């Protein structure tokens, strides 16, 4: 058979430029994670594969600090994990309370609306977090089935305290879900001790991997709700598999079927994204080898050094500093400075990427991350050194050397 | 901060055993695809990243043989692409016709049901395909908005002819969608010439990659339906972005929003799974460098050699041989032979994996694939040589050397 000429769409071999990704994520993946992802594939039901799946579950129990049997990966980006949890827990008409303090709170509300849930939001100014009393009052007013709240909202860099919310939910029979994508691994998180029923994450922030796999965990109470809506696909259903409850309005995100695939029954659902599973496993393995507390302390240290350096360069911090994440800091773009031009200059001259933000903060702040593989002293000092030059070129007057010196002072403590 | 002991969940470095994956997929990924996936990450809006996205779109236009601007990746396994297309095209109450000739037809019907569509199926015995006349009669009876049909159903190895269906749909104002995951790259497919409005695929079959990314393409007519249901997320919405139509019941799978992310507006949706994108790009790049016609001819050759070898080993072919895919063949498990024991023996002694099937064919047939990176003469001859030994151990009486000889005869032609 001849090869037709129109097939000849040519593209060169992949060869991305080097970048130091110091924005709000994704960040540079740990090279060990990328190497793990290049391991050869095995079959879906190969004992090696099911063994890796079971190990991955156990590793993420360690990362989430939970004993939940139902701890697994959803094959997609972090928002796939969010949608899987919301569509599996919320039936049409169910009431859900979503406290919103940034873009990703809006996202939870929007996904819950698409599930047909009755969505109630309470809002806080971007740059602040909720008090437990505010959440408690909203729970009493709305009486929801589910509380859905982001832990770390990268759009504002705020970290919502969750420790007291579990008891409030438990006392009212409310399920408690948090999206911990931006915060996990860099800030304290205790799934069981804090009483969460569901949590979802991603690899591309403090876990040091690429986007594309979403670790999730579900309490027994959450699993019971999902099992109450169980349906098995025609084509692999057996006669005694009875359908119950309101069917989940997604096949791909039906956590009941995904649990059957990851569980002892190994019922075929999707074809597991093996390379992403290898990567997710390596992210958790490296984090636990370091120790969760040590990893969080590392993020706190490098975050503090970056923050001190930015302040010393004359930049003003955004948001309630008592409640920022360790792994990303936002600063106001100085008056008269073109924020996008500064970011472009950093990328062009120094191959360093930092971020701006969304919605009300778009063009008003820069967001600078120190997370995962990039939570290191060299990345902090390089970023501050380069930023000093770009800020000066943009017409501000930073004290020469002040940013790097302030960061070094934090390291010297 | 001390490291608590309970963090110390240990797992060894990833080190999967070598396997030759000769089942219905996933198969061994091309090492070049895995190497491409280990390239360093760049930021989501880095010119290098948006350049790779645009190249990936152009490459898949070549693979799908389409001029569709709306050609992109859905971040998830192949079933993510199916669900994205069905939930984006079908509003609750819309009528859809799903001709079912295997497990994956049932899957299309089940996903469409979860979208709230009015699903009409016609069924064919597993091992056969539909005639255009049968589809035409069903279209006239059901008068659907959408025809959804699998091209290659791996559960049966059948390849449904699609070439004549586009005109039938066009004449009736019906949208035409096919899931081409199992067949693409190994069998002819002509998106535009055959008049398809939507198609979705995966990497883990003839494309030679790992599962986890789903290339999809949409005609202008399909895009118009999706644009009629456009909603932009609160949090990134601007004042003049008006909502229209019945909102798509998924955020993650809202192809309108995904198009805005891949299109010139670059509106943030998910964080693109960069490593999977690198892999998907490499799959298409390698396929087009070989030439689509050459790749299909390669699959036809090795499929024919494998089929001849299996027959020469005394195995009976399953299904209508005029309509099998080039890349996977099913044979009946001989009477008195324990099919799972043979598969386990092949895996244990020779590290070769073959498959069984689902539903009515479970335990009745073996499925043996020759696809993607594994569509090679060495893999065919090794599999036939090993199978001869295992069949003999299972009590059948294959003629010594007959399988390998028959395959070699095909190659010698």
Question: Care to describe what's here?
Answer:
Chain A has 413 residues and is α/β, with parallel strands linked by helices. Chain A has helices at 31-37, 47-64, 78-89, 103-114, 132-142, 165-172, 220-227, 255-262, 274-290, 292-312, 339-350, 377-393, 402-412; strands at residues 20-21, 70-74, 95-100, 118-123, 146-150, 152-153, 158-159, 175-179, 198-200, 214-218, 328-332, 352-353, 365-369. In chain A, 59% of the residues are buried. Chains A and B meet through helix 1, helix 2, helix 3, helix 4 and helix 9 of A and helix 1, helix 2, helix 3, helix 4 and helix 9 of B.
SSE blueprint:
The structure is a homodimer of 413-residue chains.
Chain A: E1 20-21, H1 31-37, H2 47-64, E2 70-74, H3 78-89, E3 95-100, H4 103-114, E4 118-123, H5 132-142, E5 146-150, E6 152-153, E7 158-159, H6 165-172, E8 175-179, E9 198-200, E10 214-218, H7 220-227, H8 255-262, H9 274-290, H10 292-312, E11 328-332, H11 339-350, E12 352-353, E13 365-369, H12 377-393, H13 402-412
Parallel strand pairs in A: 1-12, 3-4, 3-5, 5-8, 8-9
Antiparallel strand pairs in A: 2-10, 6-7, 9-10, 11-13
């Amino acid at each position: 058979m001849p090869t037709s000429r129109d097939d000849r769409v040519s593209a060169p071999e992949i060869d991305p430029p080097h970048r130091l990704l110091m924005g709000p994520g994704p960040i540079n993946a740990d090279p060990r994670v990328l190497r793990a992802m290049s391991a050869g594939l095995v079959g879906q039901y190969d004992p090696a594969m099911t063994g890796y799946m079971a190990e991955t579950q156990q590793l993420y129990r360690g990362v989430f600090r939970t004993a939940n049997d139902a701890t697994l990966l959803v094959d997609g980006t972090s928002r796939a994990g969010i949608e899987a949890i919301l569509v599996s827990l919320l039936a049409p008409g169910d009431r859900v309370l979503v406290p919103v303090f940034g873009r990703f709170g809006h996202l939870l509300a929007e996904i819950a609306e698409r599930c047909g849930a009755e969505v109630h939001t309470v809002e806080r100014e971007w740059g602040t977090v909720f008090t437990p009393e505010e959440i408690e009052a909203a729970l009493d007013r709305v009486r929801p089935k589910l509380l859905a709240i982001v832990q770390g909202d990268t759009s504002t860099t705020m970290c919502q305290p969750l420790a007291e919310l579990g008891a409030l939910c438990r006392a009212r029979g409310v399920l408690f879900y948090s999206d911990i994508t931006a915060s996990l691994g860099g800030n304290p998180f205790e799934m069981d001790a804090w009483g969460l029923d569901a949590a979802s994450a991603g690899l591309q922030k403090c876990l040091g991997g690429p986007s594309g796999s979403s670790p999730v965990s579900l309490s027994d109470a959450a699993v019971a709700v999902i099992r109450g809506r169980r349906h098995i696909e025609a084509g692999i259903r057996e006669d005694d598999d009875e359908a119950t409850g309101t069917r989940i309005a997604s096949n791909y995100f039906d956590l009941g079927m995904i649990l059957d695939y990851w569980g002892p029954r190994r019922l075929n659902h999707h074809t597991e994204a093996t390379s992403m599973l290898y990567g997710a496993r390596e992210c958790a393995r490296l984090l636990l080898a370091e120790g969760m507390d040590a990893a969080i302390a590392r993020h706190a240290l490098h975050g503090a050094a970056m923050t001190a350096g930015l302040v010393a360069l004359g930049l003003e911090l955004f948001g309630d500093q008592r409640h920022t994440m360790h792994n990303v800091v936002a600063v106001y773009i100085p008056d008269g400075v073109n924020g996008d031009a500064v970011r472009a200059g950093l990328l062009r001259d120094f191959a360093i990427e930092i971020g701006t933000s969304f919605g009300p903060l778009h063009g008003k702040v820069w967001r600078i991350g120190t997370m995962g593989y990039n939570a290191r002293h060299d990345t902090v000092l390089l970023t501050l050194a380069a930023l000093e030059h770009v800020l000066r070129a943009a017409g501000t007057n930073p004290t020469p050397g002040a940013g790097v010196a302030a960061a070094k002072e934090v390291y010297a403590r």
